[in-house]
Amino acid sequence: MEKLRRIIIGSNASIFQKIDPDSNIKVFTPTNELEINEAITFARENNLPITTKGGGSGLSGACTGASRKKVVISAMRLKKVLELNFKDGYAVVEPGITPDELNEIIQQQKANWKFFIAPSSRDIATLGGILSTDGGGNDAWLAGTMVDNVLAVELIDYNNNKIIVEQLEDQKDKLKVKITSENKELEKKLQEANFSLMDIAGSQGVLGFISKIKVEIKTLPDTGELSYAFVHCDNLNAFGKVIYDLIENDIPLTYGESIVQAEHPDIATKTNPPMFIFEYPRKYNDKMIEIIKNIPSTTFSKVDLEEFEKIKDIRINMAKRNPPEGYQIALFEGYGIYGENLLRFEEMIKEINETLGKYRFLPFIKFGHAPSLWHVGNEKIKGLIMHSREIRPTNFTRDLVFNGIVDLVETCERLGITPKPEHKWPFSKTTVKHKRLTELTKLLGTNFNPFLLDCTLEELSEMVF
Ligand SMILES: Cc1cc2nc3c(=O)[nH]c(=O)nc-3n(C[C@H](O)[C@H](O)[C@H](O)COP(=O)(O)OP(=O)(O)OC[C@H]3O[C@@H](n4cnc5c(N)ncnc54)[C@H](O)[C@@H]3O)c2cc1C
User: Fold this and answer.
1) Which domain holds residue 32?
2) What's 358's domain CATH number?
3) What is the pLDDT of residues 73-104, one digit of tens each?
4) Which residues, judged by CB distance below 6 Å to any ligand atom, belong to the binding site of ligand 1?
5) Residues 279 and 371 in one domain
6) How far apart are CA 370 and CA 253, in angstroms?
7) pTM summary value
8) What three-state secondary structure class fits 139?
9) 147-153-157-162 Cα dihedral, nearest 10 degrees
10) Do 230 and 363 lie in a common domain?
């Protein structure tokens, strides 16, 4: 049974699948704070690092702890809703609950209330994991990312110090928080270091075990009547300009998705990319038409709900389809293209495709949430989060896959494409987030998921399946 637990706990959604199950020295599945403390104490007494596992849906392999000897603490049995407060609009939950599970409980009491962060993986990703990757859904444009929806976090560090970080009630600033801990010396040091909710967001499990989270819950917005439209572009620079101008005009789209490239004949003939699928409040109809009319090489088509749903369905299911010949692979998730780069969209795609070509990966499909929103460091970024699938070469090897990924990370860093380097590729040592997390682990202990901050490329490449 213990052996089976070690094997199962190593599985995850990333390309980094090859983990030695024997490196998971002990697996804990605590159900309460006492058991979390016992798991941490075991690791400390045996001088082992700890990797926390949520739903295993992260795409960077961060929840694996690599093949280093370690203790794994899984949040799978920490699923309780501890408090639901509709008057003040919050829920206090344990970290292992998923957005779907939380929303089911909320809606049993009030059907029109919701916790808003819903990544496509909302049925498996846990709130602790989503906070640790600062995830968002395709409604991030309106709802923000996880950190925008978090009010307080309880964290337990490697020395079993409990630290509570709470947003100040009178302001929404995630950098201005109240920090409390029974360890007053640590409390003071964290205050002096300006430790904040922004630090915990996207921290990939290196600061400690997130044991409780207080999140905002809200009523569903009253958008009034909705309109539906497709926007087609003759070229990719026009496509980027559409996103750029929608952001500039702050249009409150309730659904914004795009198909950037589709080399599948079936998808291409039905959708004619590059194209957008939009849903927005009807009162913004004139504004939408005016914005699009002013962008050359662009066509706006108002559609009915049935046509909208048909193309939306093709877009949602795109990633599940293989090319007519061969197989697809997702080498790299989550290209964040924003700012002036949107106006050079053609060049961005050309550079990405050229990098893929060096490793014989053929571009297959590219699609994404647009406009969307994410954080880089403490900065809020607005742009397109684009996903990509490639057709893999017949004789592909582990080295080819890994070298391709590393080259794509370098291409992104050179072009200023994010969030991959910080959000989905947390191993990159050149980022501000990496530096900040390294500093904070000096205060909180360096034994939570240390491989994330100090692994080598060789170690990562060994993990590619
Ligand atoms: C099909 C699919 C669709 C996806 N769609 C989206 C999307 O739309 N938007 C998006 O943002 N992401 C998306 N993702 C990525 C993924 O779901 C997120 O990264 C998710 O937030 C990770 O949550 P998890 O519980 O699975 O965490 P895991 O993968 O288990 O862990 C992720 C990181 O969090 C740490 N961690 C987990 N729990 C805790 C805790 N309690 N305390 C401290 N550290 C912890 C782990 O150590 C690890 O570093 C998708 C993934 C898949 C497979």
Assistant:
1) 2-76
2) 3.40.462.10
3) 999 999 999 999 999 999 999 999 999 999 99
4) 12-13, 51-59, 62-63, 75, 95, 119-121, 125-126, 128-130, 132-133, 135-137, 204-205, 209-210, 449
5) yes
6) 9
7) 0.95
8) coil
9) 160
10) yes
